[in-house]
Amino acid sequence: MTRRIPTISACLAVVLLTLGVASATDVVTRPLALTSAHEDIVLLRFRTCGESDRAGRGIAVLDSDGKGVACRLISHDPDGETVLAVDVRTAPRPLSLTYGTQPSTQSRQDPSLIPSLVVQTFPLARRAFKDGGELVNMIAQAKPMGTAQINSIFMGSNPFGPQTDFITLIQGRLTIETAGEYWFAPIHDDAAVVEIDGKNVYSRLTANTGFDSERVARQADKITLDAGTHTLRFLHAQTDGGSTAVLAMRPPDNDSTVVAVPAERFVHDPELIPEPATARGEHPAVGFDAAQVDQIAHEEYTFTRFKLRPIAPAPPGTHYRFDFTDGTNLSLPESDGSAEPAWVERVFVGGAAEWPTFRVSMELVTKEGKSLGKCASSLRTQMFDDTGTIGDTARVEQYAAAITAASYSNAKPELLVALFQLVDTLNRIELTAPLAEAFVARFGERQGKVVDQMKELLALHVSGSDPQRAAKLFEELSTTTSDPWQSATASAEEMDLMIFRLGRAKEVPAMVAKLSAGKGPREKALLQARLGDSLRVAGKLDDAEKVYRDAQPESLRKLEANKAAVQERACREKALSLFEQKRYPELHRALLEWEADFPIAKLGGDLPVLRGRYFQVIGDDARAEAELRTILALNPMHPGTPEITFRLAQSLMRLNRTEEATAMYDKVAKEFPNSPFAARAAARDVER
């Protein structure tokens, strides 16, 4: 029996736009770069950024003769995204998109255009509805929560908002290869309506989460379909509990099996973003494009990456600036007027169960700070099932690059902590340092584990470029942290800088005596090793060796030689593994632990070599030079002399001490020709 409910297409027709007149001076024009493959329907995504009326009556697509091209407004949010379906089958190329605040007589709205495969969700106004027609009426005037293309009709959630009280509308075109009689029976929870070529073929107000062929025959209308393409609309309503929306069918050549309609049966229209806009008179069109790239879930947060791009080049001597409601901003380089706008990326943070909206404003400003134009638009996140994780290192690195490019001068501490935790999974100080810098500058007076971690990483990062500031940060950390080991390591790092970078080695003995009081054996050993360092730098090698031996914790000093060797070898293997994995903050901590347990290891072996290499990779070549030179001074017959000399040459070259570096490179190439570092020395390799 055919169910006679209002068709979805009939009810949606009430939202068609009334046409009017637009002034050419108010119109933004954007070319559409269509390839020859775009011969059917295309989907356009763009943001009018305030340059349109609330109803979108000023939006039109024009052909090369300036005539309107048939299109359908799928969704329009003047404060957010607009999605347009355009019939490009017969329109003379090239095409262009125009929009403005006044109605346009050139707009040709065609409600019969069905884009494929597009999903939208709408609020469910009331849970009590008597038939599918009421559901259709609910969405006829409602604003969609979101619009997106999907691969197939196989959904289990609302990707744009809350998981209760919503209606899903999926529109598309279905390809039928074999003519015959078909039965369509969705798997759904709660209600579902299916329409093929404008005919209702399924309508059920209660859940149907399992069925057999007999139920298909009872619940679904049989429909005869010719081979070719057919229009499809699928409507699903969800109240509460689990949500399911799957389109299944039984083809004519199968008497018993009901299968989910495979993705290849659907038409998938190409989607594009308009090209940069043409200038309007003397002023550029100020607006921007935005598109969600992907998402990553970590801890209790969801991180969403968007790409953004101004719709027109900035005039020479000006630049664009983005401001976001989370207190961050992003400034683009000053324009020379020659380059087209480039995409930039921005990462937004929301709770794992949130579908937040982010307000973005963009301003065109001169180098003197004068504003030449502003615009704004809202970005709404979409949540599908392909959310990434921190295990995808390449993707996290892309997020880190976007995160570190922004400014966080007005960001809340919770945002900085969330971003820091994501980037910190990469164990790369150069990526976490910008976030630590912003956090410490504004919230450094606070106390707690997060503040301590931020200060430590920031201090390590600036050790090479600003050792005085790094020493001050380490001093603050040593007195404010409640962790005894972290306090000792911070003091040790401060004294390292005093000895090797700041010329204050004479102050170290008094500091060691003061700070060692009341410390545990391991912390005390780490601090007293700094006294050995100060003697080593002064050339008192015998005295330094005695201090290192005496500094070793008594429990380890009394350990049997073979057991001590095993334990130290474990320290070595851990450090080497972390170095190979480029987990430098963890490597730094492992080296300090190694040194605290076996201070005598600083006189030779792999510990000082790894310390030198560590300082190299974090960009502190001056500190690396000091470490590597003292190794050679302590042990001229060190088995790692070719590598140590080569690494020293690298640091000297990066410190612009070319003559000294060349001598070191030549020494390796001539005196150690069989070393694996000889060829690199001959090539003057400076790679870290």
What are its keywords?
alpha+beta, six-stranded antiparallel beta sheet, five-stranded mixed beta sheet, 28 strands, elongated
Average pLDDT over all residues: 89
Rg, rounded, reads: 34 Å
Strand tally is 28
Helix- and strand-based class? alpha+beta
Principal-axis shape: elongated
Main pleated sheet: 6 strands, antiparallel
Order of adjacent strands in the largest pleated sheet: 9-8-11-17-14-15
What does it look like?
There is one protein chain. The chain is α+β, with helices and mostly antiparallel strands. Helix content is 35%, strand content 23%. The protein has a six-stranded antiparallel beta sheet with strand order 9-8-11-17-14-15, with helices on one face. The longest helix is centred in the C-terminal third of the chain and has 20 residues, at 561-580. The radius of gyration is 34 Å and the shape is elongated. The N and C termini lie far apart (76 Å). Mean pLDDT is 89; it is low at 1-5 and 10-24.
What is the gist of this entry?
Helix content is 35%, strand content 23%.
Draw up the topology in text.
Elements: H1 8-12, E1 28-32, E2 41-46, E3 60-62, E4 70-76, E5 82-87, E6 95-99, E7 108-109, E8 118-123, H2 132-140, E9 146-149, E10 154-155, E11 166-176, E12 180-184, E13 187-189, E14 192-196, E15 199-204, H3 213-219, E16 222-225, E17 228-238, E18 244-246, E19 248-250, E20 259-260, E21 271-272, E22 288-298, E23 301-310, E24 318-324, E25 329-331, E26 344-351, E27 357-366, E28 371-380, H4 393-405, H5 413-424, H6 429-443, H7 449-462, H8 467-480, H9 484-500, H10 508-516, H11 521-537, H12 541-551, H13 554-557, H14 561-580, H15 584-597, H16 606-617, H17 621-634, H18 641-654, H19 658-671, H20 678-682
Parallel strand pairs: 2-21, 4-7
Antiparallel strand pairs: 1-6, 2-5, 3-6, 4-5, 8-9, 8-11, 10-18, 11-17, 12-16, 12-19, 13-18, 14-15, 14-17, 19-20, 22-23, 23-26, 24-25, 24-27, 27-28
Helix pairs in contact: 4-6, 5-6, 6-7, 7-8, 8-9, 9-11, 10-11, 11-12, 11-15, 14-15, 14-16, 15-16, 16-17, 17-18, 18-19
